[in-house]
Each structure stands twice: as structure tokens, then as C-alpha cells.
Amino acid sequence: xxxxxxxxxxxxxxxxxxxxxxxxxxxxxxxxxxxxxxxxxxxxxxxxxxxxxxxxxxxxxxxxxxxxxxxxxxxxxxxxxxxxxxxxxxxxxxxxxxxxxxxxxxxxxxxxxxxxxxxxxxxxxxxxxxxxxxxxxxxxxxxxxxxxxxxxxxxxxxxxxxxxxxxxxxxxxxxxxxxxxxxxxxxxxxxxxxxxxxxxxxxxxxxxxxxxxxxxxxxxxxxxxxxxxxxxxxxxxxxxxxxxxxxxxxxxxxxxxxxxxxxxxxxxxxxxxxxxxxxxxxxxxxxxxxxxxxxxxxxxxx
Length: 302
Hints:
- The structure is a single chain.
- Helix content is 28%, strand content 24%.
- By secondary structure, it is an alpha/beta fold.
- A six-stranded mixed β-sheet has the order 10-9-8-11-13-12. Strands 1-2-3-5-4 form a five-stranded mixed barrel.
- Helix 1 crosses helix 8 (284-298).
């Protein structure tokens, strides 16, 4: 048996810098720091740790991950959540959502092999018709779109979400104003208590509103929501530009009909993707987003 297998197993439920909150299988949470200088843990990691004399812990090893999600700023790409069962992208009738952000989240999920669904909130508002129309291409390519009114119809919303989330670890992404806090508070009655628990474990409440946070929805700790702010920082630099059409369901099949094997699907003659755009099988907005992302991924990074 390896030394790491003899250590205690824990779940990383939040972290900031080199400071992590690790939850034991019994549900106890404690402050841990990683061994050595590197800090490679993310929320959702299963880690091997050992206790210290101060009542805290030292993380000795990270267990193999099933998947990993990334975000980026102008300078670097950083992983932030692991071992997810699904991604839920929350958008709303108001404010008007960015289709580019939505597309990027779905591409990243596809690249990581994580199933994804869309929740369209504020279905009680008149603007819902326009939002529904903008999401029609996504529903057409087989991505589930669930319409909810989290504030206006909380019980009906809970009835839709409960089976969707049951026994899964779900990362919820969405820009501010879409109702993410409402969703979490609806499903996790003690969300504030869990944040407080994390603050005590980290001995600081300063970062709990800006870090990725793991919430248990049920007492049995089988259903989890992971909240991560900073949707605007969501990026794709870990994706190869040539792989992009494969990661977009509406591009996948048309891209196999191009005249040239190395077609970029931007302006080449005999392009299967451009033909699909022409006949309306791929929306113009989706092709514009593809071109934007491809240009970013092929740009020199000095």
C-alpha cells in the first residue's frame, strides 16, 4: 500500500491562495495547507492529508481527477473546479445575457467531458420571448434549456431543479443579476451557515464571496452545488483552435463536409460550415462567436 493511501481522505470545499478548507468523510471541516511551495488544489479535489499538532492539516497529495475546469484573466489560465458531474449555465430574460459567455462555458464543458444544461431564469417577465428565441439554436443542437422563475415561482423551480441535480456535483455558472444567489439560497437553506463555517475554518471571511464554494444541498451529502463567481473571466486558452468545431455540436457534422482537410471555416470555398450558415442550420451569431474564439486561440501569446 502506498504512503498516500494510508493518509486521511478529504474533499476540498473552498480555497484561497495556499489556504484550503477540507471536509472529512464524517463532515468535519478544517483548515489545511499544501506540503511544499506549490498550491495545485481546487474545489472538488479529493486529497490525502494528515493532521498537525495545531488541529489543522497538511495536504500531502491530490487524488486523480475525473475532469477539470479552467478560468483565465488577461495573463494566465487557472484551474478552479474538479470532479464535476455537470455544468449548469444560468442566464435570464433580464439583464440581456452574453451569448459569447454562454458559448464559451459550453465549449469548456465539452472539452472537459462534462454534461451541460442551460437554466433560463425570470420566465415570468415579458422579455422571456426574446431570450427564448436567442436560446433556440442551443435547444436545437440538443442542449437542455430549463425555464424557471426562481423568485416568482420558487416551489415550481425547486420541483424542476431537484431531479436535475439529485446525487450530482453541479457547477453553477452565470453573470451577476441572473439569480444565482437566489437559486443557491432556494436549494441550500443553510448556505450562509456553510459560508460562515468556511470562514471559521480559514480564519477569515474576507474571501468567501469571491472564491469558488462547495455547498451540500442535502443532509446525506450526496447532492452538491458549486458556485464560482467571475463569469466574465471564463476562458478557453486550454483548447486547441483546431479542436473548436468538434466542441460545438452544431459545427461538428458540417465541418466534415469541407473541401479542404485543414479548413478554418472562416472564408474558404467549399466549406461545409459556411454552407450550413448559409442555409440556416448554424446561426450567424454562433459562427461569429466561433470566429472570435478561433482568432483568440490562434493569436500569438507573447
